[in-house]
Amino acid sequence: MGFSEQDFYFMRIALEQAMEGFDRDEVPIGALVVSKDGVILGKGFNSPISSNDPTAHAEVNAIRDAAKFEKNYRLTGATMYVTLEPCLMCYGAMVHARIERLVFGAYDKRSGLTSHLELIERLNLNHSIKIEGGLLENECGELLSRFFELKRQMKKQSK
């Protein structure tokens, strides 16, 4: 599967969003919702800790931002760019928003969407999303690794 220059451009902006989360001591995941015309409709980064909201994942925050911008909960034809493979909750939000395409960076082998595709197919949802993964996978994964390494170091120092 080939990614376009536009895909790389938007994933780099999603990485900037992930850095926003990193700087706020949130797990560094960033997301963008982009219209089929290439307009950024919404941005988001992980913020469940600072917002006291377990649903405040980067994807959900980007969808909320885009829906406000569009004044519509349907984001038909849009693409979601996210630095880490989404969880099932975020995929569900994308289905409800009618996101057309999902492009993610790093794979999440433990709780990522692609490890649950069989379940998704059995749900017989009324909307499907084109899924493409691995864009800037190393950069996206390295940011997460660096974050958790710093967390482990801080934990050791506090003992």
TrEMBL record:
Q: Where does Zn(2+) bind?
A: 57, 87, 90
Give EC number(s), comma-separated: 3.5.4.33
Its BP terms in the Gene Ontology are:
tRNA wobble adenosine to inosine editing
Q: Which cofactor does it need?
A: Zn(2+)
> What's the subunit arrangement here?
Homodimer.
Report what the protein is called: tRNA-specific adenosine deaminase
Enzyme class of the recorded protein, top EC level: hydrolase
